[in-house]
Amino acid sequence: MTSIRPASRSAYPWLPIAAGPILLFGIDLIRGRALFWGTPLLQFTPWHTVAKQILFSGHLPLWNSWLGMGAPLMANYQSALLYPPNWILLATDVAWGQTLLVMLHLIWAGFGMALLARSIGLGPFAQAISGLAYGMSGYLVARSGFLSINAATAWLPWILLATERLARSPKPRTVALLGLVFGLQWLSGHAQIAWYTLLLAAAWVVYRARGHSRSARRAVFAFGAAGALAFAIAAVQLVPTLEYVSVSTRAGGLDPETALTYSFWPWRLLGLVVPDLFGNPATGDFWGYGNFWEDAIYLGVLPLLLAVGGLLSKVPGRMKGFLLAIAAVGFVLSLGSNTPIFTFLFEKVPTFSMFQAPTRWNLWLVGSISLLAGMGAERWQVAVGKRLYWLRLGTAGAVAVLVVAALTGLLETDIQPTFIGAIALAGFWFSAAGILALLRTDPVRKGWTAAALGVVVLDLVVAGRGLNPTLPAKFNSVPTVLSAELTGDHRLYMSEAVERELKFDVTFRFDSFQPQLDWRIARASGLPNSLLLDGLRSVNNFDPLLPARYAAWMEQLERNPPAQRDRWLPYMDVGWQAIEVPISYVPVPAPERAWIVPSADWVAGPTEAILGAWVPDFDPSQKVLLEGEPMLEKGGPGLVSAVQEKGPNSVELVVEAPEGGWLVLADTWYPGWAAELDGQATKSYPANGTMRGLWVPAGEHLVTFSYRPITAPIGLGLTLVGLAAFAYLRRK
Questions:
Q1: Radius of gyration over alpha carbons of the chain, in Å?
Q2: Is 188 found in the same domain as 279?
Q3: What are the φ/ψ torsions at residue 477 (nearest 5 degrees)?
Q4: Within a 10 A sphere around the Cβ of 244, how many other Cβ atoms?
Q5: How confident is the model at residue 6 (pLDDT cuts 50, 70, 90)?
Q6: Do 608 and 631 meet the contact criterion of CB atoms below 8 Å apart?
């Protein structure tokens, strides 16, 4: 196997790689500020806050009774409650700790890419270039607020590093190492990034182990063994999640329209050179397709030029060809609906219907260019002869572009303003790269190396500034007026139309991060899932993974006119409804979480139950639609005199049914919930498609629903086996 040069063990690449994320986030962390914009406020901070409260109350965070009509919490993959770095949130303010983890993961990503560059023979300067290009790339920085993506992408270079070692030496120790890093990524909470990483690692091991049939076969077999070990290590999370997926909206894959959402807009390829050509939400002037962050791919001007140089240089071996192929495949797949290729794969090849946002395939592009940039840095030579002539000409041209763009900005023209600023900035960085190349000497001076790395750091910090807005961390913990105004322990409901207007037109607009907005409006508006921060319940649930029964019910709710919705809202335990923007809540009369009905009709499945429940003349106070083996019991009116949660995983109800009756609980039907009647196990049924129901004989009774998923102990057992196997293999 050919190396570019002997690997260096210099320590200096780490300082510039760490400098970028620290400059982006360090001051905010010191000031006690935290990420909030988008998914931090609407998903991750509420999830982790509730999980922390549950743990500190002495319970396991298995179930989230505050969102939807109840949903799994630990099995919710993106919450990543079992990802070891997230445990730091138990000792810090949740929002502040998440921001710290974002910074650390960007540093970790850069370190991993630098070590990967070292493993293929690149020296310290090249390692630093590769690490900076990846760890501070627009792909990672612009998505930092999506915490599970931030964590998962940080593990890609470490997985490729372990794969490289396994390809060279498929021994038990390398199997253990690869299994561990795979397992940690699979615990980090983003299945899409994990899948793309797995495919890239598989291609890497096949390519790097080629040439020796026996070792190639051993390497492929060892790679499979590492995958099995990784699954075992992460099973405590994966087993419950797989159960959740099997009964979720993702069980049958996504429809084409959803799967192709956020296909890479081809014009954003120019973002490799001018990232803000179509504006930037940090400056409030983004006007491109979709949102800014999904198509962000900038790696800095100097790393890009070095990557081109790496492709053009005579690098020993075929690594640059492999990286170019990986980059090309990733980019073509990222185009999604803009080519017929992805549509064909969606229809014909398994797994392509699993995820939305094809643009995320650009992970392969960014990772490949980062390594190619390191190769170019390794082969960077002092320009002489014709190369010196063209370098001088190119540098002068870059300066001219900078000057002309700056002067144009002072004039009144019809040119799009974002073009002028973006091109001027690109001209500046190209000028800086040209000047650095002109000043390069042989041997290279330390001052020049520091200047070159400083330019890259500054370039990427400027590109990433403002892409992750922060507010004081206490913003998430100070109660809003909602907690005082909306009394009672009932759920709130916000229609899809109101939520869309409030989220995308008023608060979380794609064109601007709106630093001038009083963001207390967003907290006090009750957007899902921020209500959890006020300790309030919401019948809405903003989550990419939802129980299929609940999602079908909510879709039917949204399809019906307001009068029909109003008939059902009390029976969903909705006590308050958002009716307009600016937001206001009106009370819903007589909300009930549980009630008794005299009779039941039996249906074949959830579709029939949900459609039947929404027939205009269906009366939920008199009848329930059940699934299962029919029971013909009929009763009379009754009363549920108390509903009490014994922690998040248990609900107790005191029921009075003089003639017997069917108890209906307006909580999500989900595997793992067991029912007891006066301490004895009893059978419960899916009710009205998404709720729970059971027969209560005549008299007064105590009914208990307890969440005891079998997947939790199975997953824990497999993880213990996996950790034992890892320890054994490491000693071999």
A1: 28
A2: yes
A3: -105, -20
A4: 24
A5: very low
A6: no
